[in-house]
Every structure is written in structure tokens, then in C-alpha cells.
Amino acid sequence: MNQTVWHHLKLCAQGDPRDTIEDAxxxxxxxxxxxxxxxxxxxxxxxxxxxxxxxxxxxxxGLVDCHTHxxxxxxxxxxFAQRLAGxxxxxxxxxxxxxxxxxxxxxxxxxAELYAQSAARxxxxxxxxxxxxEIKSGYGLELAAERKMLRVARxxxxxxxxxxxxxxxxxxxxxxxxxxxxxxxxDEVCERMLPALADEGLVDAVDVFCERIGFSIxxxxxxxxxxxxxxLPVKMHAxxxxxxxxxxxxxxxxxxxxxxxxxxxxxGVVAMKAASSVAVLLPGAxxxxxxxxxxxxxxxxxxxxxxxxxxxxxPGTSPTxxxxxxxxxxxxxxxxxxxxxxxxxxxxxxxxxxxxERHGTLxxxxxxxxxxxxxxxxxxxxxxxxxxxxxxxxxxxxTVFERRLNTI
Length: 408
Ligand code: NIG
Ligand code: FE
Prior knowledge:
Layout: E1 3-11, E2 21-29, E3 32-38, E4 51-61, E5 63-65, H1 77-84, H2 89-94, H3 99-108, H4 111-126, E6 130-136, H5 143-159, E7 163-171, H6 182-199, E8 205-209, H7 217-229, E9 234-238, H8 246-252, E10 257-260, H9 266-275, E11 278-281, H10 283-288, H11 297-302, E12 307-309, H12 323-332, H13 338-344, H14 347-353, E13 370-373, H15 380-383, E14 390-395, E15 398-402
Parallel strand pairs: 1-4, 5-6, 6-7, 7-8, 8-9, 9-10, 10-11, 11-12
Antiparallel strand pairs: 1-2, 2-3, 4-13, 13-14, 14-15
The structure holds N-(iminomethyl)-L-glutamic acid and fe (iii) ion.
N-(iminomethyl)-L-glutamic acid binds at residues 98-99, 102, 209, 237, 240, 285, 312, 314-317.
Pathway: Amino-acid degradation; L-histidine degradation into L-glutamate; N-formimidoyl-L-glutamate from L-histidine: step 3/3
Binding site for Fe(3+): 67, 69, 237, 312
Family: Belongs to the metallo-dependent hydrolases superfamily. HutI family.
């Protein structure tokens, strides 16, 4: 029996900094939270358990990064240089660069190489207190390479102390071999790739890039129908570069989330609200492609659509491995509040992940997955720019990360 009372801590159990306990304790029994609350109210039955003193530090739920493309080959710094010289993201994509250039590198990489490159991007996220991450396919765009990506994502979840939820994004871009035949490629996605990968247990959800440079509403709907036939939840890259009505379509299929959303209109917000979809905002992509159209924050607030924040970690539009930096950007660029961004990387992100039962909040009966912070105020999580703040990560009651630098 592994029993511990974590004490001398400040607790933010829901990821809402307006709802905290100043001197709290968490009793953990075999990896699960047996009790949490004010230290003064600790029930007698836990009084004799071994104790761990957290020195008065803040504790939040482990963070959730609910939208990433973390598994891919290579990087696109050259394309970044082109964009600095004035070429737009859309132009690069139309000229055979962009997503398709990462497809070439991903197809060429062995599974072991892909694993090593991806693990190097996952580690900094985990060192920031992330305990659950979504990872999409979508740089293979053929069965074998999509399988390779999803297998790597699963392996990361098996070897690192993090929950990995996989998303099949076969409809991310048109592979060169299907040039001019987008409908045929969608047939391939729906009739061959998705069924095979789902049968292999590699798919937890299905995503589509619905956009002028991605897939149309009609094509996106076919992918969602194929997902529905397999009872797989859906989500969508929607209204990133234009208002295509993707979020409303996704809502009709009960989407977990619609993501990006800079060009979302009121009708789309209303549809998302009715479907209880989460709005996943991706400030890293907004920043990196120097977007100027802001996502409709006021509408999302007015209709009380839950908002999550994520890294969108990918080589083309958001080459970041820091969720804390995204929290900072969401406040500065999107004018989101500290409570909004903190809930956006905990409880709302867990909903977008489709795993709110396990992640995003701390409560009795749930896994003891939490982050311990080297801050005096929770607002610091959104305030510092690029400063490591996570002192310790506890997963299933065990310390899986501890930051310490030896002085000489
Ligand atoms: O989330 N929008 C489409 N997909 C990615 C970008 C992928 C890439 O450029 O490699 C995104 O922004
Ligand atoms: Fe994305």
C-alpha cells in the first residue's frame, strides 16, 4: 500500500484561481486522491500516513495540451525564412511547401527516428507540468506513414508519464500523389485508412483541416460520417484562415472541440454552444503566422462556450514546446484573463481531450496527477515569458519530474 499525505501546499483543484485553499492537504492512496481539502480538516484516518511537505508551494491539476502535432519529421526553419522575406503561409502551401514538405520528411523517417525527434519535443512539455497531451497524425497522408505516426504517439504514452490521446488527421492536406483528386483521397481516408487504423486501436478521435488549402465542407462531412460509423469522437481545424462554416458542421457531429477559430462568426458560436463543443484557441499559431484577425472572444464569453488554450505544436505554424508561453500569449494577444487561461489548460482542455473524467481537475477518487509550482501567485503562470516554473510533477501519486540545478 502506497499512502502519502501531501501537505503544506496551496491548492487550486479546479484550475480556477478564484477557488483555492491556502493551507491544504491531499491524501493519496495507491495513486488516487483519497481526500483533499483544508489541512485543518484532515480526517483522523489519514493523520498517521507518511507525509510530504511541499514548502507552501502552489498545486494545480497537471496541465493538459489538447491540440498538438508533436510527432513529425524534420523542421521548417527555411520556410520560416521565406515567410520573413514576405511569402505568406498560404502561398508556401500552394507552391508545394508547407505541410507537404513535412510529409516528405515524416515519410522518410524510420519509426525510431520519428520517436526520438518527437520525444525531444514532448519532454519540455512534461517539464512544464503537462500530464495529458493530444497528438495528431496528418504528416503521413498514406496508410503506412499515418500508422507510423500514431504508433509513435502511442509509444510516447507508454514510455513517458503522460496520457496520450491520439487523433487521426488523415484529412490534413492533399498528398502529392492525389493532386487534383481530393475526393478520391477522401475515399481513401474514409474507406481504407481510418478503418484500418481504428481496428489497430490507434485512433481515439478524428480531425479534419477544413479550409481553402485543406478540405471542403462536403469532404469534411464525409470524414465525420466515417468517424461516426466507428463511434469515434470528432474535432476540427476550423475557421483558421477563412470562415468556411466548419465549426457549425463539427457541432452537428457533436464535436469535442473546434480549434483555431479566428474567423468564427456568431452562427458558429451558437452552434458550438448547442453542441457543448470546446473552443480551442491556439495563440502560438496566431502569433507565428502573424495573423491579425482575433478569435471572437466576446462572443465565446457571451454564449459561455468553454475555451481551451493549446500549443498546436507543429513545424509550420507553431514551433513551440511551451504551454506556459501559450498562456502568456493568450493573455497578451487575445486579452484573455488569468482565470480563463488557467481553466483553458486544465478543466476545459481536458474536456476538449475527451478525458475530463481523469484529467483537468483534482478531486476525491481521481488520479493524483498534479503540478507543483515555483511561484508566489498563480497569475505568474501567465505572467512570465519563457521562465521554467514547474518545480515538480506528480503522476499517480509518484514524483515523475523534479527541477533542480546544483550550485557549485
Ligand atoms: O494547426 N492548420 C493546419 N495544421 C497546422 C499547421 C500544419 C503545418 O503547417 O505543418 C495548424 O496550424
Ligand atoms: Fe493544428
